[in-house]
Specification:
Layout lengths: L12 H21 L9 H21 L2 H5 L2 H18 L1 E3 L2 E6 L5 E2 L1 H18 L8 H19 L4 H18 L3 H18 L5 H11 L6 H17 L10 H4 L11 H35 L3 H25 L17 H19 L8
Antiparallel strand pairs: 1-2, 2-3
Length: 369
């Protein structure tokens, strides 16, 4: 029985259960998506192992007072930038992108995946420590430089989707901290100019994804093939779906990267709107609500900002992943949280849940412990 003074009495079992159930649902859909592809069939088993590791990581981060992380925010920041710099110089190249560090012959880690969660933590502390200067434009520029260093290193990997995610997190957190409207207007104008200037320097496939989204009729048929297959998958699923393992587009190999970027299409085709997409989106909405609840009740500004940043990560990734599956957003490579296959991604998501739990467990306990 828990002591009345134990911080574990505040542990959110509902949040943990929702994350585990959504992951389990994802594992089942990954298993279906890779059926008939011998090279991919071990992935469902791998995802189970990553889930176990993620659960251990979640409990570990929940057990540690999050303020030990915030008190070390400069060390974490320097370490993250150093890791991203190492990736830029000598990281592992997969599919023409240099985003990974080879740990063993079979394990690779993607620092930008871990970095998104750590940035939420340390940027939350960075903002909390500059609360009295939030109205100064020089402070807004300082926060942009702080976030801009890792974003620039991620952008050159290249990873446009993750770069945009970091900037969305920056905006949500600094807006919550009290970003003046005049600063937002000025930065929006600068961003429009910057996007125009950066567009020619994007990789060919990145420009192709954007132009294909804007004008699919003029695009090369190969460029729109997978989006077409995703639309067919979702449209043919209807309310009830074709049945588990019965999706024609995924099972017959028409839909590509169906276990990662386009897992939402597999879910909707096989399980339908009611038992597929609605369940996934409802579970994600519940997770977001539990995280936002923690941000609302914690009195610590750093804890509040980091929870908001983690919620922004999950919301943006979900919105983009679903949006590109239904052709309302360009393809970015961002996966569906807790559902898509990916070891680094899944472990970092559970790490994020653990950090939120740590904030919740100590929202009434001001001393360390």
């Amino acid at each position: 029985m828990l002591s009345p003074t134990s911080v574990w009495r505040y542990f959110d079992l509902w949040l943990t259960a929702a994350a585990l159930l959504l992951t389990t649902y994802g594992i089942l859909m990954i298993r279906s998506a890779v059926t008939g592809a011998p090279a991919l069939e071990p992935l469902a088993g791998d995802q189970i192992r990553w889930t176990i590791i993620g659960a251990v990581v979640m409990i570990s981060f929940a057990a540690v007072d999050y303020r030990y992380l915030t008190s070390s925010h400069w060390y974490i920041y320097i370490g993250l930038v150093a890791l991203l710099g190492f990736v830029a110089l000598g990281g592992q190249i997969n599919n023409d992108a240099r985003r990974w560090i080879q740990v063993t012959s079979t394990i690779q880690i993607q620092p930008s995946e871990f970095g998104r969660v750590f940035m939420a933590v340390i940027f939350g502390q960075f903002l909390a420590g500059r609360q009295e200067r939030i109205g100064r434009f020089t402070n807004t520029l300082t926060t942009l430089v702080y976030m801009g260093a890792p974003v620039a290193l991620i952008f050159i990997e290249p990873d446009l989707g993750m770069s945009v995610l970091y900037m969305i997190m920056w905006f949500v957190m600094i807006w919550l901290a009290g970003l003046p409207l005049s600063h937002f207007i000025a930065l929006t104008a600068v961003a429009i100019i910057g996007i125009t200037a950066v567009f020619p320097s994007l990789q060919d496939y990145q420009r192709d994804r954007i132009t294909t989204f804007l004008d699919p009729a003029a695009a090369d048929p190969e460029s729109v093939f997978n989006i077409d297959q995703a639309e067919i998958s979702i449209g043919s699923g209807g309310l009830w779906g074709k049945g588990y393992g019965q999706g024609t587009q995924s099972q017959l190999g028409f839909l590509r990267v169906q276990h990662t970027d386009f897992i939402f299409s597999v879910v909707t085709e096989e399980m339908g709107l009611l038992f597929g997409s609605l369940i996934v989106l409802s579970a994600m909405a519940f997770i977001l609500w539990r995280i936002i609840r923690v941000a609302l009740i914690t009195p610590d500004p750093a804890g509040k900002y980091m929870c908001a940043g983690i919620a922004a990560i999950l919301f943006f990734q979900t919105m983009v992943s679903v949006g590109m599956n239904v052709r309302v957003l360009p393809v970015t490579g961002l996966t569906l949280p807790f559902v898509s296959y990916g070891g680094s991604s899944l472990v970092t998501l559970y790490m994020a849940i653990g950090i939120v739990q740590s904030v919740l467990m100590r929202h009434r306990k001001q001393e360390f412990g």
